[in-house]
Structure formats: structure tokens, C-alpha cells
Amino acid sequence: MTEGIDRQLPSPAPAVVPETEPFWAATAEGRLLLPRCAACATVIWYPKGICPECGSLDIGWVEASGEGEVYTFTVSRRGEGAYLDAGPFVLAYVELDEGPRVMTNIVGCSPESVRIGLRVRAVFDDTGQGSALVRFAPVER
Amino acid sequence: MSIRGQAFIAGAYEHPRRKIPDRSVAQIHAEVAVGALADAGLSFSDVDAYFTVDQTGLGAITLAEYLGLKVSYIDSTLTGGSSYLVHVGHAAAAIAAGKCNVALITLGGHVRPAPGVGRAPGVGTPHGPFEEVYGVTTVNNYALAARRHMYEFGTTSEQLAEVKVAASHHAQYNPDALLPNVVTVEEVLASPLVADPLHRLDSCVMTDGGGALVVVSPAVAKTLDRTCVKVLGQGEAPKHTMNGRVDVTYTGAVWSGPMAFAEAGVTVADVDYASIYDSFTITVIETIEDLGFCEKGRGGDFVLDGGLISPTGRLPFNTDGGGLCNNHPVNQGGMTKVIEAVRQLRGEARPEVQVPDCEIALAHGSGGRISSRMGSSTLVLGREDA
Ligand SMILES: [Zn+2]
């Protein structure tokens, strides 16, 4: 089955608040920013205005490599909300090379070819509202 | 201060219906409240504490008014499906502290539909925008855990299916069960994949319904004719994504279990019966490992050969048919977990599934979603003379 390789998934716009605006603005430019604590240098996920390791409110941003590997995944066959009629899609956690495991979709390959440990790189799907969803596609070998 | 022996469950009632379109949510609460108080031999005027999750925006107050309660203690803690185990623990602590003597706990409502098209993803929570835009649902979230558990420990779909098979064996004796038919491993595997590796039959039922409990002080328990159940210990623990280091292979039971066992002064070897939250088959596998019934990663082996089937299995579980086959009212199965544990300790489970001489029972709830954020609670109960 090759369905899913070129298929475009729904890209609903996320709710953006001032705390997370730099993250989403960067995605619209095709860049993946990660929050990092200015006090203890912990990389933070999900983006938020406090360091959950040390409690500091002084949070900066660093640009991520955009690469990582699949920690776990599923081929989801029954969507809800914007995904109601999306057909089968891959929901996954990708462990970024910077550490955090982020929820995402795996695209650019057939769902059947996804494996735990697969090397992937970020791709950015425009929501049309000043943000892009950060999905991941296999790194070409 | 420990709650051990400081409170007793005197009344328990499960709404017999699974589809209740002709009742309002508040009416269902009223029906189960009446049922549990009648079971205990108490009346509304005896109730001085009220526990329910917030369904109205004003905590327990809306329903306290509807029921006509005059109480001096309220609690609307919400930890998802585990809320009602937390409520029993909190009620026992409040009774032990002298704040109240008769606590009523109610659950009622209709099945919650999935969100429709047009709902803005992630509004209202800090994490939502980073998850909901990717199409996460309850079932595909649990599937993420099942996949990783298989990868790390070699767990198989056949082993997951055994959990459903055991639940169905019990449900056949429950005339109120939504799904009373015994199913086989093959039938589970042949049911449609919803989010692989989870099939439709790896999932719990979705039902209207409700239930209620009455928790009382030792002094009140002494005055009642009804057989009471002793509260021995309780633990509660949220588990979340831990700043991007989410590990989907274990649950908050790794923390709530030891707390409850320590307070109760018992170990897994003492447990005669267990109600284990069964939103999905993987929930049971991970939970029995985390509670210490088997080594981490061996849950799949533990459930083989009828390991969960009462009364002959290694760990008789969910003898009402559980959330997988009997009832999962309002997507919150913690209430029915406690109720079946109470039936077992009273010797009032269905005869075919009653554990002989059941002295110590455990009930465990898992709220929320196993692969992101969840609320776990473990309750250890004993016979009145335990
Ligand atoms: Zn820090």
C-alpha cells in the first residue's frame, strides 16, 4: 500500500498564546525552536514559560537540528475533529536529538514502513494562519 | 496519620442500565445516591460529606443542591476515571480527621461523544496545541503505549487479547453487562484495528450509567446491619510527560500502588481479588506489572492460561466483566472498580465468579491517557473483620 506517501494530512491551526508565539512564528519560517532554561540550560518540552526542572521563569529559545528518531507510533484508522475524514495516519512520538520526545505525525512514507528507531527529519506543514505543524519524514539514506 | 481502619464502605450501588437517554445527568446521580444509601441503610439526612467530579462548573455544589444535601465537607477532585478511588481515600482521610461521618460519592451521566469537526485544537490547555493538532485521540494515545511495550518486552497482540477474553468469561454471568458473550483470542484479533496494535475488542465499552458509594466512620458502621468493607489504604499519583521524557511503558501505579500497600500493611501476595482499570487491554497489562503482581515486562505472560479468570486464575480480576465488557459509565470506570471489589469482599459477586474466602481486595483506577498524562489511584480494601 502506497497510500499516504504524498497525501496531505489536515493541518488545523493550533491555539497560539503569547507564551508560545515565538515557537509557532518560527514554524511558519520552517524552523524548529526549542525553549531552553537560561538558568540551568535544560531543554524544555512542551514550550512553556517556566522551567519544570528548576522553576526559573527565564526561558530562551534555541534552534533544533530538526532530526530525531521514532520512539513509538501507531497507524490511527479512526480520526476525530479535523481528522474525522483523514483516513489512516501515523501518530508518533519522535525523540529529538536534543532530547525531548514530541508528539507528531510521520509523513512522506507509507504507514506500513514506519518502525521504532526510524531516523526522521522535521517537515513543516503550513496551517495558513501564521503557523506550521511540525511533522517528520524519514531521512533519505 | 493513616486511614487504615478509619473508615468503612457501607453502601455501594451500580446503575443497572447502560443506555439512559430518558434521564438527565442529575437524575442519574439521584438514582444511584438513593441506591447506595438504601444499600447502607442510611438516608440523605445522614449524609454530611459529598464527593463528585465537576460536571457543571461549580464543583459538587450543583448536585448537592439537586439532591438536597446539607453537608459540611465537599470534594470535586477530578483525576479522570480514577476519580472515585481518590474520593474514597479522601473521604476516609476526612472521616479520620473528624471532619465528617457519612460521605456520599456519586457518578452519573451519558457517554461522552468524540469532539466534532471545527473544534479548535488545544484551546484551554497548555499542552493541547502541541498534541491535538496531530490528531491524538484516546485510543491512538493508548496504542502508542501498546506498540512500545511490545517493542521493549515482546508483548503480543494475542496476550493483549487474553485480557479481553478473561473479562468476557466473567461478563457472561452478569445479566446487566453490555457485552455478555464470551469471546476468543481469535475473535479479538479479527476485530477491526482502530489504532494498531489495538483492535476494537481491545477497547472498553462506552456506556451511560453511574454508581455511588457511602463511606462511613467506624462508629456509624457499628450501628448498621449491612456488612461493611474496611478501607485499608489508598494512594494517588499523577504521571505526565515529565518535560519531554515521557515513558509510555509504565503507569502512575508504580507510585500509587506502593503507597496504598504500605498504608494497608499488605503485599501483592495478600490480594485475593483485584479490580484493574481496563480502558484498554494494554492498560491492564501495564498496571498489573506496575502494581507488582509480576515483573516489569512480564504482564503478557501473566495473563496467559486464564491467569485473570476467577476463581481459578493467578489473579481473579474484574469479575463483573469490567470496562471491557460490562460497563464504563461516562468514560469513568473507577466507580465500578470499587463497587465490584465491595461485592467480592461481601461475598456478593455472582456465584460463578465469587472468590472463595475473599479477605483482601484491590481496586485500581487509571484516568486520562496512558501515553501523555494520567491520574492513577490504588485502593486496598478488606473484609469488615480484616
Ligand atoms: Zn531550569
UniProtKB/TrEMBL annotation, chain A:
- Domain ChsH2 C-terminal OB-fold, first and last residues per copy: 61-125
Query: In this protein, which residues make up the domain named ChsH2 rubredoxin-like zinc ribbon?
Result: 24-58
| InterPro entries reported in the protein's UniProt record | ChsH2_C, ChsH2_Znr, NA-bd_OB-fold, Thioester_dehydratase-like
SUPFAM superfamilies from the UniProt entry: Nucleic acid-binding proteins (SSF50249)
Q: Which Pfam families match?
A: OB_ChsH2_C, zf-ChsH2
State the PANTHER family in the record: BLR3430 PROTEIN
Please give the name of this protein: DUF35 domain-containing protein
Automatic annotation (TrEMBL), chain B:
| Entries under Gene3D superfamilies matching the protein | 3.40.47.10
One Pfam family named in its UniProt record: Thiolase_C_1
Q: What is this protein called?
A: Acetyl-CoA C-acetyltransferase
Kindly list the GO molecular function terms attached to this UniProt entry: acyltransferase activity, transferring groups other than amino-acyl groups
Q: Where is the Thiolase C-terminal domain?
A: 241-382
Q: Which NCBIfam families match?
A: PRK08142.1
Keyword vocabulary terms for this entry: Transferase
